[in-house]
Amino acid sequence: MAPKRPIGAGAFPKPVVTLAPEPPDPVAPYAALDLGTNSCRMLVAQPKGSQFHVVDSFSKSVQLGSGLEASGRLSRASMARTVQALRICKAKFQKHKVQRMRLVATEACRRAKNARDFIRFVKRETGLQLDIIAPEEEARLAVVSCAPLVSVKTEQLLVVDIGGGSTELVWIDLSRVPGPDRARAIMRLHKGFDTGDHPFPTAKVVDWISVPLGVATLKDLFRDVEDDAGRFALMSWYFEEQLADFSPYAHEQAREGFQIIGTSGTVTTVAASHLGLRRYDRTKVDGLRMSSDQIDAVIRGYLELGEEGRRADPRIGKDRQSLIMSGSAILQALMRVWPTDRLSVADRGLREGLLYAQMSSDGVLEDGPF
């Protein structure tokens, strides 16, 4: 029997309406905001090749975690300061017509009893939605941001992110990844540290740890110690004690093929001091490799200056001077535990990782060399 043709309005089939989302605009701006224990940092950027081009930025010391150690709560004053900074960020998002953004809060909000109230307060006052991210995601994004700085000769990589309220350490085995592919292998970690089974060699996360001590929280713990050098030694010793559960801590590592990348205000400030920069220049700092002797020399110089001298030193800056010794104590502990000839300085971190992750997920970055 021959098929019958329908009659009337339904004679021609209706076009199928696809529910697939529109592909993202490859030049549309993206935004990332990192609200930490001490600082509020924001970037607006556009995809450009395998990386991105920053079109606007903002950074301010808001001291959100001020008093948190004692009370367990975010204070009204610190929340008010933070909201003022977030209003500036909101204005920049509107100026650049940003539609794709990720705004995150870290250790201070993870620990504060009134963090959820604060998130609602921010939403009500600014319209911005902050996400409190877990330590693993914070560590993962810091690692991803450092991918362009990974050497083709690196087989064992330690990425250290010294924050205001916590310090993340991630140890990665790259020995099975061909040298030219190592940076891309790091980028793939934005989906998770559990790399699973893949047909191509992958970066293997040996271990990672989030130590609930950063430049602000470590400083607060030892603020009652009056002697400057004594306080520094105690902070460094105490931080090293917190690494006992980090599996690579107990094993001696070969220097050949080993790279440490440090990302934080502490690391970039030490680098700027080493270079003698009276005005900070990211192009001279990001990617700089410092020897352990050079780092020790800078830290000894900080101790010789004393509190008054550090306060007046233009290489340190007003926002960083009160926190530089606690950060230096963490840095010195790390260089003592894993003796190495070089530290790679990264002026990049959570914000850059957030941008890379968003752009990679949207497929707007070229899969080319860094």
**What is the typical, i.e. mean, pLDDT?**
87
The gyration radius over C-alpha positions equals 23 Å
Q: CATH superfamily of the largest domain, called what? A: Exopolyphosphatase. Domain 2
Write the CATH architecture name of the largest domain.
2-Layer Sandwich
Category by helix and strand content: alpha/beta
| Strand percentage | 15-25%
Give the domain tally: 2
Question: Strand order, biggest sheet?
Answer: 8-7-6-9-11-10
Number of strands: 11
Output the helix-strand order.
EEEHHEHHEHEEHEHHEHHEHHEH
Q: What is the CATH T-level topology of the largest domain?
A: Nucleotidyltransferase, domain 5
- Please, what is the oligomeric state? single chain
The biggest sheet, with number of strands, parallel, antiparallel or mixed sense and barrel status, is:
6 strands, mixed
Number of helices: 13
Unreliable stretches (pLDDT < 50, length at least 5) are 1-6, 8-13
Fraction of helical residues? 25-40%
CATH level 1 class label of the largest domain: Alpha Beta
Question: How far from one another are the termini?
Answer: 64 Å
What is the overall shape? Answer: globular
Organism: Tropicimonas sediminicola
GO molecular function: pyrophosphatase activity
Protein name: Ppx/GppA phosphatase
InterPro entries: ATPase_NBD, GppA/Ppx_hydrolase, Ppx_GppA_N
